[in-house]
# Entry
Amino acid sequence: MKTINFTMPANYPLQSYRDRFHTVVDQVEVATDKDKMIYRITYSKLLLPGYFVVEDENGSNVGSFIHHCEANQEGKSCVHLGAAVILAEDLGVPLKKITVKTPSSHIEKHPYQDLEYTTIETTIKAVEPPSSVKIPRSKGKSASQNWKEGWKEIEQYLTSQNFTRGMIGAVQEKRKHVCDKVSLQPICTPPIKPVFPYEGEILARAVRHVISGRDLLLVGGKGTGKDTLCSTLAWIFGLPLLLVTGNVDETRESVVGGAGFKDNQTTFEKSPFTQCLEQGGITHYAELNMMSGDVTSIFHSVLDDNKVLPTPNGVIKRHPHHLFIGSINLGEGYAGVKTLNDALKDRLAVIHLPYAKNFRGMIERKTGVTSASILSLLEKVRSAIKRLISEENQGDSADTIRGYIAAAEHLQKFGATEDIKAEALEDFIVNRVEDLDERMAVRQAVRLAWAEFPVNDEEAHYEGGY
# Structure
C-alpha cells in the first residue's frame, strides 16, 4: 500500500463518471475526526466502502481517497476513484492524493469505520439521479416534454458514434415533433439515458429506420443488446417506452384489451399496448415469437398503411409517433418459440444484432471491471464454451452475456480468490445448464480455460458413476 499524488489527466472521462455516479454509489455519509472531515462512500457493487478525507493544508482544504478493489490492487484507475473525483468536485475540494494497492484488511479494520456518520445524499448533487430522470408520473396524469432537455448530451453521443451532421439534424427534428406531440404516461418508462447506451453501426441503422417511420424487428441471441437498443432509441428521440413480454398464453383480447366494469356498466378496458399505440411512444414486444400467428396477426393493420387497431369498441387510430419494436431470440434453449409469419415480417425492418466483437471491452465498459486477471479468465472461459457449442452442440445455455457480466461484478466485489472464482463460474455460467451430461461437459470446458477449476461433489459422483 502506498499513497501517491493525484493529478487528473486532461482526457479524464469526468462527464461519464458524473452520469454514472448514481448507479455506482449507493450512499454518501459524513463524519468528523478531530480536524478532518471523513466522507464514507458505499458502492453498489463493492463490499467495502471508500473514504474521502478532507483536511486543512496550508490554509486550504484538500482531499485524499482510500479504498480497495481489484483495479486498485493493480494500481489502475476505476469507477470508484471516478466517483471520488465527482464527490471532490461537488464539495469544491481538490483531490490531491490517493492510496493504491490497498489491501482489503486495511479497509475492514480502518478506524474510520467506527465514526458516527450522517447521510448527506440530498446535499451532494452527484448522488441524485440526472435531471432527465426527474419526471412527474402521477397516476392518471401525463407530463409534457421539452426536446431541449438533455439534447446536448444526446448530440455529443451521436457525434461520438460518427453520426453525420445531417443525421443529427434529422434526429433533432424528429425529437422536436415527438416531444411536442407525445406526453409521458404512467404506463410507460420515461425516455432516460441508459447507463451504457447502444453503440456502433447497428444504432445508426436503427435510427435511420425510425426517422423514415419504419417499425423494427430485432433478432439476436442472449446478451446482444436488444433491450439496450430500444432504451437508447427512446432516449435519443424522447419516446416513452413500454415493454411487453410475449408468451404462449397471449390472446388477441390480452393484446388489445377486454371487458371491464365501471359505474354498473360494462366497459372496454384498453391494454397498455393499446394505450401506448393511441398516445404515442415505443412498444417493445419482447419474445414476439412466443406468440401464435393468430394473435400476432392483430398487428398487421397497425403496421401497414391503415395504421389502425381493431377493438371490440371500434378501430383505434395509431398515433403518428408510435413505434413498434418486436424482438426475438436466437439459439438453443428457447422452448415454445414459433416462426414469425411472412406477413408480419414484411411490415418490419429486420435487424440482426451481432454479439460484441470486443468481448473484453464490453465487459469492462458494462461493469467497470478493469482487472486483467478477471477479464482474461472470462475471455478464456467464453472461448472454451464457444468451442464446446461449435464442436459438440452443447453448452448454449451457459453462453450468456448477462452471466459473464454478473460473474465479473461478483469477482470484483468479493475478490478473485480461488473459491470466489469457482463460485462465480458455477452460479452465473455453468449451472445455467439444466441437463446433467451437458453441465458436466461445460465443467470440462471451463477446466480447459482454468485448470484449477475444482471438482465439486456433483461432478465427483458423476465421474464415479454413482
Remarks:
- The two ends are 50 Å apart (CA to CA).
